[in-house]
Fold this sequence. Notes:
The protein has 534 residues and is α/β, with parallel strands linked by helices. 33% of the residues lie in helices and 19% in strands.
Amino acid sequence: MLDLIIRNGRIADGTGNPWFFGDVGVKDGRIAAVGRVEQEARSVIDAHRQVIAPGFIDGHCHSDLMIFDHPHSEIKIRQGVTTEVVGNCGLAPAPFVKERAELLQSYVQPVLGKTDWAWPWETVEQYMEHLARSGPSENVATYVAHGALRIAVMGFANRPAAPHELERMKLMLEEGLRAGAIGLSIGLLYAPGSYTAKEEIAELCSILPKYDGLFSTHIRGEGNNLIPSVKEVIWIAEKAGVPLHISHLKAAGKRNWGKVLEALELIEDARARGMDVTCDVYPYHAGSTTLTTVLPPWVLEGGIEGTLEAFRDPSLRARIREELGREQDDWDNLVCSTGWQSVVISAVHTEKNRHLEGKHIAEISEERGQHPADCMMDLLLEEEGRISIVYFHMSDDDVSQVVRYEKSLIASDSLTCETGKPHPRLYGTFPRVFAKYVRDQRVLSLEEAVRKLTSFPAQRFKLGKRGLIVPGYAADLTVFNPDTIQDLATFEEPRQYPNGISHVIVAGKTTLTGDQHTHAREGGLIRAASCCTH
């Protein structure tokens, strides 16, 4: 007898092939039968001709700490997501050394959130073990994050790594890979990643081939420097002989709109000469990050405390204001190209500034009677550097181009946000793909959209037998109505769950039925298969 049968569905199996009508049988957490299933089962779900798809995989998000405080993962489960990949953009809560723990915590807090409990790990392996014991409702895999490595070894020093420092980082990277991390992520936009030369990164990446690891990167510039930044990471991957995945590919700033086509051509050229290069995209024209990313890179030396000290120095404050007022050659000054009205406060740290959430910097500066740059610096001082923003700097046409691109997968890039107004992608990414890009605009076929959310990320991130509706694969499944699936989260009211998803199954257990989470916690840690061979 089977544990579960989902009957009478349109099976979009994750391959991208046309859907077909049939049933899916489940036994012991695995798919046991597909097609016309005659066996009996302890539980039966009638899909009523809805789509049965593999569970969606969020291949780029920042739920590294949120998963502990919210192990039911209702925000993602209710979008049909059954697996997340964390440790992205060089940002992760491990590894760290005790004497620099506070540096790392202040570094990641605007993106990963703040915990009210002490981190009970130091190494990547210990973080993964703690995650495995937490019993989440979804599956989780992680990278080793370059920012954490560099802070552990060098703090926020703006200089090349000494040979012994580089060796220590390589050792810590290998420890994480041996524990089952899927690769190395780096955030070249964020200090201290931005302080790292391409040659140093290539040397660090030389560890990856031994573990079949992936090199994933938030590139150095997504505005005026988009094209040289894509060329840089392709050079690194080619030099190290590793597969490359470019995170949230975009062209930021109006003067750069359209450049995504040139960036995609660079990926195609690299693939034509035998390189393994892919990218991901989120389906919105606004991004979300920390307010400190608008600053000149030199201001971020010394971590958050060093940055706040710079704001207190009148001469340095004047220099920051002047540099933010003009285009820069060696870093992307997106404020100059998009304006302060594009920078919206999404979350602050203190109650006294809570009323500013949802307002843009130009509006706040006018209310305060300040220059926008001074307003921004004062806000960061008041909030001890802990401000998250939503950044309106992309073109819908560019987003559609990357969504359509065959070698792109779709992910949320969602940040943790316990207060304020998070980017709506936290609550709406996956239903939005089907509502906007499949049903309304017909940018993608239903089957291609399912592939980009299931088998493609499962293959890219080496998540084992997931992402396909095939006997023997994990019974992670999502059932949805293609006619009614809809994201409801907006920039004005982002904390809204979507419509149109009727069931979510994780490891064969019904985890969502209608709008009710069943409290099942059948997910867990996914380790890279290569960790078992070393």
